[in-house]
Every structure is written in structure tokens, then in C-alpha cells.
Amino acid sequence: VWARAIGNELGLTEATFRTALARARDLEERVRTDRADAEDARRAKWFEQIRKDASDKTWKNLKIFEITGPLHSSLVDVLSAYAMYRSDIGYVPGCNTIAALLLLNLPNAETVFIALANVLNRPLPLSFYTADETAQASAYNLVLQTLGHKSQPLHDHLTKTMRDVTPELYLGGMFLSLFTGHLAIDEAARLWDVYVFEGDALLVRAAVALLLSREMALLGSKTSDEVLAVITRANPSNGAARAVGEVGAEDRFIAAVREAGKA
After folding, report:
1. Which GO terms describe its molecular function (predicted)?
2. Cα separations (Å) of 200 from 183, 191, 207?
3. Is 72 helix (H, G, I), strand (E, B) or coil?
4. pLDDT tens-place string over residues 14-64
5. Measured between alpha carbons, how far is 2 from 169 in angstroms, rounded to an integer?
6. CATH assignment of 1-121?
7. Cβ-based burial of 247 (10 A; exposed 0-12, middle 13-18, buried ≥19)
């Protein structure tokens, strides 16, 4: 269902995936055999980070994405192929849990690659992956405007009381990971059940809902580090997102997202 809903406007095929993955492997082989140029060396760092994030920062307590896990190689392959397919973007941390969520819900790596490339080509995610600061600022403003209607105290605390805190600090990671780094798997999957159909506007409402769900803790924060800790508290110290949420949490979160969209 997700693959059909996301679509394939880019016209990618299994051959696109295989070609991009082959390019990644050829590059790593050049590095191993000391035939790499400076650009190869720069890109090789993507693959080092991909393997590290797959093992250490992708729902680690599930044990399916770590080195000995059944989906580790598929996750590394999808992320490596995407980095080569969009070499202007490369690998961006946060993409790992998006690809992991897709691997848990789609049949194979080829289908995941096609879905990942197309979903990251939607306007809001693309603005974060290509560092389009104007478009990012527009997204931040939409979130803060909506937040102001829902909780003026929280809006004022984040925008006026805490002058050293920028929206990028507490919203950037949400949009880079499309919430997969901030929610348990079941919550993220439930959000994506809606997102794949409804598109980017839902992400703005989801950001507001997530901020409101942590309103009291955010109001009690006094430094940028404390704000960041509240926003990322779904993640244990190793940076891996929670795997399983509380019973019914996914339905409560979607209800909150819907509520955030109401005037």
C-alpha cells in the first residue's frame, strides 16, 4: 500500500537500484585497492557512516539492523544506493530510520529504494536533504504559527523566552527523519499510513502534536541542551529510537495530529 501511495514519479526501476549499488561497491573497491581519487575518498565516508548508523542508531534493541541482524545488509544497500543515486545529497543521518521503517513494511530492498527516493523527493523532505534554507524557514514558520494557535505559552517560550534556541534545533531532526527518529516504530508506521496519502501538510501538524505532547517538559527547559534532550527523549543514550511504544500510543498520536490541524 505504501509503495503505491508514494508512487514512482521519478520512474525508477530495480535496474536503477542495482546500478547505483554497483557504483557504491565499485567505489569502495577503489578505496580498498588504493585507486581512489579525492572525490572517492569523500564519498567513502558516507558508507562508513551508513554502516555505523545501521548498527548503532537504528532501533538497536530490535537487533534486526545490527551487523548480525537479518536486515542489516539490506539497510546498508538501500542507503548506499540512494547516496550514489543522489550524490548531490549523499548520506544524511536520519535517513537510516526512514529506510528501516520502509524495510519493515515493503517486500524487498529494490522496492524500498524506489519508495525512499520518491518520498524524499517530496517538497518538504527535499528541502531538508538539499539544505534549502528558505523552504526550511517556511516549514518552521508554519509549525510555529500553528503552535501559537494551540499553545501560546509554549510558542512564546520557544521563540521569545529562549532566545538562543532556533527552530532548527528542535524541528530539523523531525523533518530529516520524517519522525522515524522521534517515535516508536508503531507510532511512526501509523503516521506514515496517513502521510503517504496526505502528503507534507501532515508533517507540519505532526511536529505541532509532538511539541504539544512534551509541552510541560519544554516549558520547564532553560537551555538549548535541555530543549534538545526533551525532543529526543524517545531515544536512549545510544541514539537509537524506541522500538515499541505503549499500547494504543499510535492511535493517540494520530488523534493529536488531527487535533493540531483544527482551527
Report:
1. GTPase activator activity; small GTPase binding
2. 17, 12, 11
3. helix
4. 999 999 999 999 999 999 999 999 999 999 999 999 999 999 999 988 999
5. 30
6. 1.10.8.270
7. exposed
